């Protein structure tokens, strides 16, 4: 009898856990769902992490750090470049057929013995993004950031085209942006509106964190632009901001 009671409690706990998990998708998943509901066809997507190293590193040790990081990410050889912003160490490679990964380590104070380099890792893909590939990329990036004690905060951006069947006007773009903001349960914080593009920064309680702006805290950005074919809208979403060209 006792075993049956324990089994029932375990079953109830797992049921509640699974239901909670299903109701609380990741921020990336939430953004993808809203994007899909607009009817837009995805062209590009990017998962990006960028921050300064949490600890100081000797300038002479940066090439070695870049090599270790590239190795952990499964990238190719590291190439160094002397640029106006300092010394850059770059490497790239692929995680799958459709996901190009780029790493950059920047020493913007090469004259100093100890520095906190800026580290950027971007995973960029074209075409549709499957949930499995998103989960795999996110997990792999997170593990690497943790291992090297790099800030695990990431930016996620998606972009695609939505045919409208007629020449795109301002109302079409406004309607699309309002739809996305509404479905995210977000409130507009700041915006930019021109003849060809509407970009809205907003805050949604569905997503964590955010960036402070003059208008308030934002954690999602929505942009709608007239495409090269003026019968389609280029829709770009990003959290907490868009980090892909739009």
From TrEMBL:
Highest taxon of the lineage: Bacteria
InterPro entries noted in UniProt: DUF1779, YwmB-like_sf
Xref: SUPFAM superfamilies: YwmB-like
Name of the protein: TATA-box binding
Phylogenetic placement of the source organism: Bacteria, Bacillati, Bacillota, Bacilli, Bacillales
């Amino acid at each position: 009898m006792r075993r049956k009671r324990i089994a029932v409690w375990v079953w109830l706990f797992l049921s509640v856990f699974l239901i909670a998990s299903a109701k609380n998708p990741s921020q990336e998943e939430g953004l993808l769902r809203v994007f899909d509901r607009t009817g837009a066809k995805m062209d590009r997507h990017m998962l990006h992490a960028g921050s300064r190293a949490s600890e100081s590193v000797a300038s002479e040790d940066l090439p070695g750090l870049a090599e270790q990081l590239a190795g952990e990410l499964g990238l190719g050889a590291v190439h160094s470049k002397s640029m106006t912003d300092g010394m850059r160490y770059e490497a790239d490679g692929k995680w799958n057929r459709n996901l190009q990964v780029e790493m950059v380590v920047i020493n913007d104070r090469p004259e100093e013995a100890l520095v906190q380099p800026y580290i950027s890792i971007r995973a960029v893909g074209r075409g549709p993004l499957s949930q499995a590939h998103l989960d795999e990329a996110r997990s792999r990036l997170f593990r690497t950031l943790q291992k090297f004690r790099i800030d695990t905060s990431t930016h996620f951006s998606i972009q695609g085209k939505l045919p409208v069947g007629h020449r795109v006007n301002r109302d079409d773009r406004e309607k699309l942006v309002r739809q996305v903001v509404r479905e995210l349960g977000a409130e507009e914080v700041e915006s930019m509106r021109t003849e060809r593009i509407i970009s809205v920064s907003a805050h949604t309680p569905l997503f964590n964190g955010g960036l402070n702006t003059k208008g308030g805290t934002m954690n999602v950005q929505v942009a709608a632009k007239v495409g090269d074919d003026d019968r389609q809208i280029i829709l770009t979403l990003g959290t907490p901001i868009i980090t892909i060209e739009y």
